[in-house]
Design goal:
Chain lengths: 444, 444
């Protein structure tokens, strides 16, 4: 019976995907939704027809992030090959720590990471898949600290001078989270000025480093960004690399969002100089549509820093008297113990469409964006939105016609952030989006 | 065409699950396996029949962790309801940070966490799902540090005295990883002695705390274990809580493995006193079979420590002028930004079998274990395995009949660690396991 239920359930899950949802979301107030879903967990189990209804409800009231008009986050859309990889990952249910328990995935992760590194411009190096870009950025900061002060692992921060981290005013908030979590402190993150487009100003980086030193702090880590979260800006990597070289600092590039431009011959110039970095964060679950989660931290290092920094040599997992090459037991590179398999979805999609197919997706997203900008310039009233944005957003959500985020930034009042990823998108969707903002705000 | 491929692929994925695999694994040497899989990623995509063959290969050479004779890790088996929840999670592909983008899952996570807390014995509190038990343990250590020294978030460790962490000699290695990652240093983790069964000796905890103080360190965190990784020991929580109370220390219980005994009226006494802890790690992906990953950190705290400790107030996600109750935007409790949905699989399984069904699973696992111990006592030659274990293990893997891990510990030479979880297991499997070890090692 159990298997029968499952087959129905799996079928339902698949149907949810192919069902032509007309709305991006079916908004309900929290109290109403809680009552509709009947969330309470009870002593006794439920019959099959009720479970099937629950699955339908979960799908119905969830946001359709694979709807072409979901522009709300830095992920969207569905790639069916990647989705197959995700289903297979779930079905095989294993952890990535040893060759013994994940033979296929240990070798596959190695291949995928090596291919991503080659796009960065590195013939060798190291890396690992992490649960999201923030974790990848944290790995970079931790390995950089360990390279500069290996005694930190044993003795903690008390053996170190006060450290300083540098990043732009518009970098992702994970830099602050990392500094807090790793005991460095958010006060020791120095914010470098950006230009109008949101790109770090290298001259200001130089000055900020001198400022930190004059305050007695020891610079060790520069966190540049390729594709900032709100404006999508690419920091100028060459001049930043010059400064890092001169000062002997670890250069990290957070390309969680922007990294995928490296697939494109036309757009990879945005990351010129990335091969000079020490580490790169790259989330294929964003622009590449592999599905959450798929984030890699890539390192240029060939001295096993990642393993030395994070190893704990647990004897029950990493026995040294094993009958195969234990360098394949990559679990000690990770700060996690069990680690989800995140490589299969990307590998299968890449096999299916080839590097060329991935390149086309990136190029298409840029084409749509260019079209959108041109269209917007031709219309009036799109410059400042301010207090009107939250009202337009509320109407948008309640009508469920599309999803688009807004925020203020720096001196700017609220504005909408349009994210163009999904390969299902057309120019018509771009036009729809502008028309819809006009329609929703016409009386404001 | 894409959809057609997918449907075939999905079907294949499901077939892999129901296919009656005779072997737990089909061992291949790494070089041979790499060649068989043809891992290389190329410029051009591949035709459908080749993709289908790739999916078959991935399944064929992966370890069948849902085979009843996979005893190798602290996870095993498959629950088909949980699996349905995992497929649905993948299909809906969202992140858990705001009500806007994950309305169903924000409410559902809240309900599941609340139910887990009530089993711990707390009527209120806080918590979050994390990518694995190590991360959950790290959260506990970080929140404890923040409660004791809130200035650490801003100023880093330089504003703090040297800290000391306490855990048993047989606790999980994630304590060391956490101390290293968070800038506390592994040297500041004090190891408390254990008795023969592997349980922390409370008197030694008291003495070790005094020792740390005499060395000028400031104790702040006691990490107890319910269900150690190798011996499955439960630390005595009542006397540990007495000491933590007296000394004003944060008491954390790592019940990643053992937590699920709280479902069982018969076995929950093993965690007597857990309600006195400040935080508990509990991984339903282990004994409860929800599938990787499903790990919760639960807190007794009701003052929003979790949020204060980890928040970064990103304006593009957590706008304060939203049209709904922004306390539902739980993303700032997390150190991650995007966070996978881990609640649905547990919720759906719980709905399907009820608390009663989960209790039965725990009780059944204990019954099997008791049977195994009795059987083992009746046989000779099972006391010391030593250098024989790696050879038996190699033969076991190459024949693929079952999977079972071994390790040395403390003064003990190599021994096999038997993990009994899967609801598909019978007494016959226990007998098989013992016979198989005898067979594989008969000539040694």
């Amino acid at each position: 019976m159990e298997v029968h239920t499952t087959q129905c359930c799996i079928l339902m899950g698949c149907l949810c995907l192919f069902y032509p949802w007309s709305q991006v979301c079916e908004w309900r107030e929290p109290e109403e939704l809680a009552a509709l879903l009947d969330l309470e967990l009870r002593e006794n189990g439920e019959p099959q027809h009720q479970l099937l209804q629950r699955i339908r409800d979960v799908a119905k009231y969830s946001v359709k992030t694979n709807h072409p008009r979901f522009f709300n986050q830095l992920f969207a859309g569905v790639d069916y090959h990647a989705l197959t990889g995700r289903f297979l990952t779930e079905a095989l249910n294993t952890s990535q720590y040893t060759y013994e328990v994940a033979p296929v995935f240990v070798l596959m992760e190695d291949e995928v990471l090596s291919k991503l590194r080659s796009l960065v411009g590195w013939a060798e190096g190291d890396g690992i898949f992490c649960p999201g870009g923030t974790m990848s950025n944290m790995y970079a900061m931790n390995v950089a600290r360990y390279r500069a002060f290996p005694e930190v692992k044993l003795k903690g921060m008390w053996s170190l001078p006060r450290l300083a981290v540098f990043t732009s005013q518009q970098s992702h908030y994970s830099v602050m989270k990392a500094a807090a979590f790793q005991g460095i402190g958010t006060e020791n993150v120095f914010k470098v000025k950006v230009d109008d487009r949101g790109c770090m100003i290298p001259e200001d980086l130089g000055e900020t480093i001198e400022l930190a030193k004059s305050q007695g702090a020891v610079p060790f880590f520069v966190h540049a960004t390729s594709g900032t979260t709100v404006q999508g800006a690419f920091d100028p990597l060459e001049p930043i690399a010059d400064i890092c070289d001169r000062q002997g600092l670890w250069m990290h590039v957070d390309a969680a969002w922007g990294g995928s431009v490296l697939f494109s011959k036309e757009h990879k110039h945005l990351m010129r100089g990335v091969e000079r970095a020490d580490s790169v964060t790259w989330n294929p679950h964003k622009m590449m549509l592999t599905g959450l989660q798929c984030s890699a931290i890539l390192l240029k290092d060939t001295t096993h820093l990642l393993k030395h920094c994070h190893s704990a040599d647990a004897k029950y997992l990493f026995q040294q008297d094993k009958f195969y090459d234990t360098s394949l037991d990559t679990g000690d590179k990770s700060i996690q113990c069990g680690r989800k398999v995140d490589c299969l979805k990307l590998w299968l999609m890449w096999k299916a469409v080839g590097s060329k197919g991935l390149e086309e997706r990136v190029d298409r997203a840029f084409t749509h964006t260019r079209y959108l900008v041109e269209e917007m310039k031709r219309r009036e009233g799109f410059e400042l939105i301010g207090k009107v944005a939250p009202v337009i957003k509320e109407r948008m959500m309640k009508q469920g016609t599309m999803m688009l985020g807004y925020q203020p930034q720096g001196g700017r009042v609220n504005f909408f952030r349009m994210i163009v990823i999904s390969p299902q998108l057309s120019h018509q969707d771009m036009t729809f989006c502008l028309n819809e903002i006009e329609r929703l705000g016409s009386d404001l």
